[in-house]
Structure formats: C-alpha cells, structure tokens
Design a protein that fits this description.
about 250 residues; alpha+beta; Hypothetical Protein Aq_1857, Chain: A; seven-stranded mixed sheet; three-stranded mixed sheet; 4 helices; 10 strands; about 25% strand
Length: about 250
C-alpha cells in the first residue's frame, strides 16, 4: 500500500524560518541564526533594565525598609534568648598575698587548674588542715638547667601583712618575697587574704620564671603528681616534666 502524504505538508526549513520570524517580529534586523546563539549584550542590558524597574516587593532578597512582621517562615525574636558577651571571663586564680608585676607593668599570674585545686582540697580534707599550701620553687639543676621543687607547707591562720626575710627566720612559712595564689570557683565571691581554698606559694625568682604557667595535677602510668604545664618561657623539658630550659 503506498504511503500517504499530505499535499500541503510544510518543509522543515520553512518551519524554521517561520519560527525565526515570529521570535524576531519586533526586531526584523536580527539574523535568523540568532535563534541558536546566546542572548546578545543588548538583550541582557534590556533584561537588566526591566529587572531594575520591577517593584522592590517582587524581589525577596532586596533589603526592605518596611518594619518587620512575623510570618510562618520567620518567627518573632525570642526576648529571653541569651546573647553573647565580649567581656573577659572571670579568672579562677587570684593573688591574695603580695601580688607581683613584671617589667611590662602587668601582674605576674600563675594559673591553678581545677584538677590541681581539687587534689589540694582532697589533701587538705584528709589531713584536716585547711591552711595547707603547695610551695613551688625553681632551682638550677636537672638535665635541662632548671628544675621544679614542690612541697606541702602549712601557712599561718592569718596571713601577715608583710613577710620576714630568710635571715630573720629561715623556717618562716611566708617570706617577704613570696606571692600566694588561691583558687576560687567562677560563681563564688572573690577570695580574700583569709580564704581557706587551695593555695600555691612561690618566691619572687620562681614566679618570674613561671609566670603565665599552669599548675596541673596529672595521673599517668609513672604516677600521679602536681606538674607545671604551658610555661611560655620554657624552650624544652624532660619527659617527667620536672626539669626545663628557658629562653635567655
């Protein structure tokens, strides 16, 4: 059976010309091949101008000057929401006796970590001695030039206004160049000179070498001990952490 054909069937080329003419009815000077090419720069400029003339209400990402109104997608702000503060956090370590200042005028501090404070509190409770303190002293020696020496001492119930010299009393618990630090919880009141919290005592030369450090309590395979960590002046230290070298 012969294949049926339409007597008025348009050619493919004719349809292509007709579509091109419809597209460019407003701009007959544009070539037919522009149907297959991207928009010209003039067309993009026309579209951009039209978009600029569009009312701002039709652009959801344009900053509006109208007052904020609650919607389903943007609930009202929570008045009880907690905001962030840029104020510095209150430190837990305080100098309660003879605070020292360095050459730059800043107070020389030694931080007591929470673990070290808890361990000192446990020792104080076990010995029933609320006036117990940990004295830290730096001496020359060890495998790296300097070494830490630590021992427990008992402070007087009331700290003196000024300490005594070693010549006056070599066994005095508090000397004139000593500085005493204590640990206080962040939510508690600022400690006073008669505070009964865990304390660290250092002489002036030792504090000069340990300023900015932390007194921590570590539990390792070799044993548990109080330890100096994060000393900004130390360039190297031994494995056990009792000897160190400093920047000269």
């Amino acid at each position: 059976m012969p294949q049926l054909r339409c007597a008025n069937a348009p050619r493919t080329a004719g349809l292509f010309i007709q579509l091109s003419m419809r597209r460019h009815a407003l701009s007959p000077a544009l070539p037919v091949l522009d149907l297959l090419l991207p928009l010209r720069a003039s067309h993009r400029a026309t579209l951009t101008t039209a978009a600029r003339r569009t009312p701002a209400s039709l652009h959801p990402f344009v900053n509006q000057t109208t007052p904020w109104r609650p919607t389903k997608l943007s609930p009202a702000p929570n008045p009880t929401a907690r905001t962030f503060s840029t104020s510095p956090a209150r430190r837990a370590t305080h100098a309660i006796f003879n605070p020292q200042h360095g050459e730059d005028g800043k107070e020389m501090m030694l931080e007591i970590t929470a673990r070290a404070a808890n361990r000192l509190s446990e020792i104080m409770a076990k010995d029933s001695n609320p006036h117990l303190a940990l004295r830290i002293q730096v001496e020359s020696g060890g495998c790296h030039g300097f070494q830490y020496l630590m021992k427990l001492v008992t402070l007087p119930p009331t700290l003196p206004k000024t300490g005594v010299t070693e010549e006056e009393d070599p066994n005095a618990p508090v000397r004139e160049d000593d500085t005493i630090f204590t640990f206080a919880a962040d939510d508690g009141p600022a400690p006073t000179a008669d505070a009964t919290g865990p304390k660290i005592i250092l002489d002036s030369p030792s504090l000069e070498l340990l300023k900015g450090s932390k007194v921590d309590f570590t539990m390792e395979l070799i044993g548990s001990q109080f330890k100096i960590v994060d000393n900004p002046l130390a360039t190297s230290s031994c494995g056990c952490g009792t000897s160190f070298d400093i920047k000269m």
